[in-house]
Hints:
The complex is a heterodimer of chains A (246) and B (231).
Chain A: E1 4-15, E2 18-29, E3 33-37, H1 44-51, E4 59-64, E5 67-68, H2 73-82, E6 83-86, H3 98-110, H4 114-127, H5 143-155, E7 161-165, H6 173-188, E8 192-196, H7 200-206, E9 209-214, E10 217-222, H8 224-229, H9 234-244
Parallel strand pairs in A: 3-8, 3-9, 6-7, 7-8
Antiparallel strand pairs in A: 1-2, 1-4, 4-5, 9-10
Chain B: H1 5-15, H2 19-44, H3 49-64, H4 67-77, H5 82-85, H6 90-93, H7 96-122, H8 125-133, H9 138-168, H10 180-191, H11 194-223
Amino acid sequence: MSEPVIMMKNVSKRFGSFTALSNINLTVNRGERLVVCGPSGSGKSTMIRCINRLEEHDAGTIIVNGHELTGNDRRIDAVRREVGMVFQSFNLFPHLTVLKNLMLAPRLVRGTDKASAEAAAMALLERVRIPEQAHKYPAQLSGGQQQRVAIARALCMNPKVMLFDEPTSALDPEMISEVLDVMVDLAREGMTMICVTHEMGFARSVADKIMFMDSGEIVESAPPDEFFGAPKSERTKMFLKQILAH
Amino acid sequence: MSFNFDLVWSSLPLIIQGLGMTLKLLFLSSLIGLFLALFILLLRISGRWYLMWPAMAYIYVFRGTPLLVQIFVIYHGLPQFDFIRESIFWPVLREPFGCAVLALSLNAGAYVSEIMRGGIIGVDKGVKEAAMALGLPRWQQFIYVTSPIAIRLALPAYSNEVVSMLKATALASTITMMEMTGVARTLVARTFAPYEIFISAALIYLALTYALQQVFAWIESHASRYVKKER
């Protein structure tokens, strides 16, 4: 059961003189759900973006599904196909309908034939509860709907792990729960997930482990009960106080 | 001296005899220019200095010199070289038509490649990252995601460039081409009525520009169909 999907060893990353990540060590096992939180600029987005090499790390080792991330383009593409990613700003392909957004990568990258790609896409749209929007363009959908399409698009590639980079931060409050519901479903089905979010209710109910980052370091990492009930570090306590204040 | 309206109208059909040549110059050099622009664009965005620098030099030279000068250099200058006269390009370069098309195409290539680059720069970074994150190789990202969006973004500037090209074809008259302005100039030499004749020519250019605008407005609205919000 404890088969590691993602391993980061002493990973560091700088942007000029700014240290985005310093000595990150992290293991995520199959089926594990990790929630990452921390103030803005703490490196949490950079950290998950390093996992599919949207950012290149400067030092250390990252191993995803047994493949070490290096500068080899083909290898990176192969790794990316196994890693689904959901962005804060949805990033749907604006020129394609919802259905074609979902079908693009399976068709191009996996060479899936049209009929089965379409069937798989429709099944996923059912799963995120918007099959009726299949033939609309992204701009015609609400933010919550767009983000659900984005989740379905990532799932189309049958990823071994899903990365969520603040998936609800760009949403109007009334749309947050429809996206979280889909994510909770995914977690229940046993998907391995890393989720950068400030939705502490979500973290409490689905996370196996919550990780708090600050200034590019992992400050604290613990199961939810421990993390919320008995945080060890002062920085964590301070952050929790601020975020749970209202 | 009085303005002769009749002469404006009566010279219209004569000037229209040059319309075919004007359109031929426009379409041929737009088409060649488009392919050239695409080629230059690919060099320009390749990220490799030995491909980027020649592309940038090319763009700099053709945007940095007057089209009229380019036409003269190609038409009067190139035939001085023996190797040009002995090359396979000579049958094209010997004729003013070939020189005009070459100059217009080279010029369009430089401008249009920059217009295309503008479109590509305008594509949302996040959308490109989404394609990357799905594991699409670079060329598939470019063809299936970046390009369709970039084309829409570049269309308004491109339509502007085609309208510019239409008017630039008039410069071909300086190397004996009988396109509309060339025809107008011979009419002026015959009638000594530059005012009326050139206004007549201007009216035809206006009509053509209007037609081009309509065509591009339709293409733009078609290309932007997915941008409109309708719930």
